[in-house]
Amino acid sequence: MNDSPPKKKTKQRSYSVREKLDAVRRMQEVRMEVVATG
């Protein structure tokens, strides 16, 4: 994970989209775990 500032807007956009997808995946996994345990 590089904290260096993005030089290209496209790179930043793709990174943000990837981050959002990862966040959604984590949310779904957490929900599944909660449903399975609860």
From TrEMBL:
Superkingdom in the source lineage: Eukaryota
Protein name as catalogued: Transposase
Native organism: Phytophthora nicotianae (strain INRA-310)
Classification lineage: Eukaryota, Sar, Stramenopiles, Oomycota, Peronosporomycetes
